[in-house]
Amino acid sequence: IELERDLRKAVQRHELELYYQPQIRTGNNDMVGVEALVRWNHPTKGTLSPGIFIPIAEETGLIHEIGTWTLREACSQMRKWHLAGGPLIPVSVNLSSHQFHQPNLIEYIRGILEETGLEPEYLELEITESMMMDATVSTEILQQLNEFGVKISLDDFGTGYSSLSYLKQFPIHRLKIDRSFITDITDNTSDQAIVATIISMAKHLNMDVIAEGIETKDQLEFLTQNACQEIQGYYFSKPLPALQVEESFFIPQ
Ligand code: G
Ligand code: G
Ligand code: MN
Ligand code: NA
């Protein structure tokens, strides 16, 4: 209840901050994208993770205000980086299902891109399998987003309920292999089979595929050997404040 009261004021008080986690191409260690992950710098409780406050935001409806702030900030930061000569890479933003199901999603996204000057192809929206499977709305929404040029990725892939037939019907650009399949991948032969199969399936469906939660060299090696070209995880970088992304990744060292 206290947190909820504080969260209501967090946006106006500029307490939210976006961190960015680099997404790396395994062949040459180039940064191919960044995922924006929101943090709350709470005045007394320190830095709070979205795992704590996004559920509160969803229950209270504050998710619309916070989600709008997040999208605007991510697009605006990316545009700044592009103008400053940073790499021409997209930003991935996590959408909650409330946001995905808002009635005017396309116009809303178009508005944010126009305001911030970011071209649509540099925005990727991360949705989950359950959001995609809600067929009453998603076919049309996903097709409109695709026509507009915004990319869609399926987050936490493999952990939700999705029908594979949806993957061929819908314009999904990228599968994000969930971290839970990566954690024990060096020992667990089931995880190895699942991950190798997802990578192969994505290729045959002409989708990109990225593995999340890479923390060790051995995990990276398995993925490289199985032709997974993009990875994200602490092994390369934790999510970082914008300034640290610039310092660590933009300026040649
Ligand atoms: O960064 P971290 O691992 O603490 O994120 C925890 C969860 O919060 C993840 O599931 C992530 O997708 C989600 N999350 C992070 N940032 C956002 C955001 O801006 N919007 C939404 N809806 N979820 C987010
Ligand atoms: O649900 P989603 O995939 O958006 O959540 C991403 C979450 O995973 C973020 O909270 C981020 O901080 C976290 N994360 C990113 N890389 C790693 C990693 O290598 N290991 C672990 N344990 N968590 C990670
Ligand atoms: Mn995500
Ligand atoms: Na994920």
From TrEMBL:
This protein's source sits in the domain of life called Bacteria
Query: What are the EAL domain coordinates in residue numbering?
Result: 1-253
Write the protein's name.
Diguanylate cyclase DosC
Origin organism of this chain?
Answer: Brevibacillus invocatus
